[in-house]
Design goal:
Layout (H helix, E strand, L loop, with lengths): L1 H9 L3 H11 L2 E2 L7 E5 L5 E6 H10 L3 E6 L6 E5 L1 H13 L2
Parallel strand pairs: 2-5
Antiparallel strand pairs: 1-4, 2-3, 4-5
Length: 97
């Protein structure tokens, strides 16, 4: 890993490593360990505090992912979103910096 880090820094790709570290902080789907979470729908509506099973079901029913966006809140805050699209948007915005 250190060789990759050094190589990326030499190539001016340090932003990419920072982005990977930021993306790693998001728990997605079954990685979320809280028994209940505050859920924000894909359209921004507050769905309230739901048991994790219900939150995961709602995300699956929408064909999207449940992503923990604030794990330190009580209860943790999760958003229903397309996680792959979210990662792509962060990567493209990071490369323009």
């Amino acid at each position: 890993m250190a060789d990759r880090d050094e190589e990326n820094e030499e190539n001016g790709d340090a932003w990419f490593l920072d982005l990977d570290a930021k993306l790693d902080k998001y728990a997605v789907g079954s990685q979320i360990s809280a028994p209940a979470v505050r859920v924000i729908a894909a359209d921004g509506r507050q769905l309230g505090v739901l048991p994790i099973a219900e939150a995961l079901r709602r995300a699956a029913d929408a064909g999207l992912d449940l992503v923990e966006v604030n794990p330190r809140a009580n209860p943790p805050v999760c958003k229903i979103m397309n996680y792959a699209q979210f990662r792509r948007s962060l990567r493209s915005s990071g490369s323009s910096n």
